[in-house]
Specification:
Blueprint lengths: L1 H15 L6 H14 L1 H4 L6 E10 L5 E10 L6 E10 L2 E4 L30
Antiparallel strand pairs: 1-2, 2-3, 3-4
């Protein structure tokens, strides 16, 4: 009788734990992240084909590293971005990048503005 109770408890716990170590879970989290930042970035992710091209997980299972290819659905060349995600319960959360002078998408070394160019950013 004890064994039956233990088996039932373990089965219940296993059913409550969601396996999120897969491309679909990571893809969904990245798309959700980009949609929440659409006002800031101006990127409409609905107009893009988003494909997780490579994906690795740390041995602890608490961190994921994904390379994602973005291609316009209307055609044209795309771009690839690297993302690091942290596991928070049964979800992946995209790790934000520091945004101080660098491109918020992580591309360093962008060219400087031409001399006498008006300041970029929010206008008063």
């Amino acid at each position: 009788m004890r064994k039956l109770g233990l088996i039932a408890t373990l089965s219940l716990l296993a059913a409550c734990t969601k396996d999120i170590q897969n491309k679909e879970a990571v893809h969904g989290s990245i798309v959700d992240y980009l949609k929440t930042r659409q006002d800031k970035t101006g990127l409409n992710v609905d107009l893009m084909q988003v494909e997780v091209s490579t994906l690795t997980f740390t041995s602890s299972g608490n961190e994921a590293h994904a390379n994602v290819m973005f291609t316009p659905k209307a055609g044209g060349t795309g771009m690839q971005m690297a993302y690091t995600l942290d596991r928070k319960g049964d979800k992946w959360v995209v790790r934000t990048r520091a945004e101080g002078g660098e491109n918020p998408h992580g591309a360093a070394g962008l060219p400087a503005l031409p001399p006498n160019h008006p300041p970029m950013g929010k206008q008063p």
